[in-house]
Write a structure and sequence with these properties.
Blueprint (H helix, E strand, L loop, with lengths): L16 E9 L9 E4 L3 E4 L3 E8 L5 E6 L5 E2 L1 E3 L2 E7 L4 E8 L12 E6 L5 E6 L15 E5 L11 E3 L8 E3 L1
Parallel strand pairs: 3-10
Antiparallel strand pairs: 1-2, 1-4, 4-8, 5-6, 5-9, 7-8, 9-10, 11-12, 13-14
């Protein structure tokens, strides 16, 4: 009977995320509260500050935040955690890549989605006077407007110009 030499094989388990958290600070003008949550799909207003905190299962060499169609973002080691903050500008998919000293990485990464609600400009409708309405030279003109914004308004200002046919130029009145 022939015997082969004895070889030692050692398997290495890829690192994994032991704990992942997200902190979201929406812009103040939205009047939304800050929130903390586990890694998951998120929805937040444009301009929010998003902080990712990752605790890997063991010592690793690198931790990257992978954003679809963008350069990976290196997360900074802070004790047992890796963290990174970014400002929400557009919706995208994201995942976290962990790489150990031997180059072994978590290849079966969970893909999450970041839905960023765009901040739309305020909308203003002039109710009165109607466009093209005739007014006598010295008549009083009453204005009525409706203004709205996706996060509400704290104030509004009306600026207008009076054009006179017999004058060149414009008079600016506020």
């Amino acid at each position: 009977d022939a015997e082969s030499e004895v070889y030692s094989v050692q398997g290495r388990i890829p690192p994994f995320i032991d704990k992942g958290e997200i902190h979201i600070s929406p812009p103040k003008y939205t009047a939304q509260k800050e929130s903390d949550m586990d890694l998951k799909n998120i929805e937040t207003p444009e301009g929010s500050e998003i902080t990712f905190k990752i605790k890997p299962s063991r010592e690793i060499a690198r931790c990257l935040l992978l954003l679809a169609d963008r350069t990976p973002v290196e997360m900074k080691k802070n004790g047992p955690l890796y963290t990174v903050s970014l400002t929400a500008t557009q919706s995208t998919q994201y995942s976290v890549q962990l790489v150990d000293d031997g180059g072994i990485e978590n290849t079966e990464r969970v893909q999450y989605y970041m839905n960023i609600a765009q901040d739309l400009p305020p909308k203003i409708d002039v109710i009165s006077p109607e466009a093209g309405a005739f007014r006598a030279k010295l008549s009083m003109v009453r204005f009525q407007v409706e203004a709205r914004d996706d996060y509400g308004l704290t104030s509004a200002r009306l600026s207008f110009r009076i054009l006179r046919n017999e004058q060149k130029g414009e008079e600016n009145m506020e």
